[in-house]
Specification:
Elements (H helix, E strand, L loop, with lengths): L2 E6 L5 H15 L2 E8 L16 H26 L2 E8 L2 H8 L5 E5 L12 H9 L4 E4 L12 E4 L4 H9 L1 H4 L5 E6 L8 H9 L5 E6 L6 H12 L3 E5 L5 H7 L2 H7 L5 E4 L1
Parallel strand pairs: 1-2, 1-4, 2-3, 4-5, 6-7, 6-9, 7-8, 9-10
Antiparallel strand pairs: 5-10
């Protein structure tokens, strides 16, 4: 993964995103593309009770905040010894990140409360995971980096989304100390976990196949349990194997893991 987009937002999850991006760049000899997007709403005039408020003053205040954020992040970038560049844009954050992903290998964003704009949606991270041509690496806000050489857990259900995620994760799988390919008895598919493991073996990645029966637990609960058992440093999963409307209304593995990811989560649709 040579070209790594990192979302610059100035929120509480940013430090974790940056640290994971640094670890990934150093492990792969990669280049960081920092994308800072200022939503148009930031330029809104606000409360009408404020009365006449000079638009130029408001714009100056927004731009000053933007420059301050850039100065702070660039100071950290310069101290990390990685290759990087900076892009500023206005508009919808998801739209701009998806555009930049055309010439990238992965987009580093946040999981957890900073991933969603409202209670019933997965917000910007889910939107980018569905629309971008590359995977999203969703980072828990409390993460202290990415153990690139640690164990990796692949969640496999035989679907197209899981296959995409596994293929796009190959550069990381080749760096992992061991790889576990987990399948939970949920639906029949001719594309079994063992076929997926055979595919990986031809690419130089040995994966241990683990088949689990839910036994009354949800698929998400099984994934969390196995991730803890394997001490996984990375979970790889297809995003939105069911319709987004279904996941929004009734939950779903993607939504559950992304809302409270135990470790960095590589998502691909």
């Amino acid at each position: 993964m040579k070209t790594i987009i990192v979302h610059i937002e100035g929120d509480e999850g940013q430090d974790a995103r940056l640290q994971v991006a640094f670890d990934l760049a150093r492990a792969s000899g990669g280049h960081l593309v920092c994308v800072s997007v200022m939503p148009y709403a930031a330029y809104a005039l606000g409360d009408p009770a404020m009365g006449a408020f000079p638009v130029t003053t408001l714009i100056d205040a927004v731009e000053a905040r933007r420059r301050e954020e850039r100065v702070q992040v660039e100071a950290r970038l310069k101290s990390e010894g990685v290759s990087w560049e900076w892009h500023s844009a206005d508009g919808d954050s998801a739209d701009r990140l998806v555009e930049h992903a055309r010439l990238a290998d992965v987009v580093v964003m946040s999981a957890g409360p900073f991933a969603r704009a409202a209670q019933m949606t997965l917000g910007i991270t889910g939107d980018v995971a569905v629309r971008a041509p590359v995977p999203v690496l969703a980072v828990p806000p409390g993460a202290r980096g990415l153990a690139v050489s640690g164990p990796a857990l692949i969640c496999w259900d035989g679907g197209q989304e899981a296959a995409n995620a596994m293929r796009q994760a190959l550069p990381l799988l080749k760096l992992a100390s061991n790889v576990t390919l987990l399948t939970v008895a949920e639906k029949d598919s001719p594309f079994t976990a063992r076929r997926a493991a055979a595919y990986l073996s031809r690419l130089g990645v040995h994966a241990d196949v683990m088949e689990r029966d839910g036994g009354g637990a949800s698929v998400e609960q099984v994934i969390r349990s196995v991730a803890a058992e394997c001490r996984a440093s990375l979970i790889i999963q297809g995003a939105y194997g069911h319709s987004r409307l279904r996941e929004m209304l009734f939950g779903g593995v993607t939504r559950g893991l992304l809302s409270d990811a135990p470790v960095p989560l590589l998502l691909s649709h």
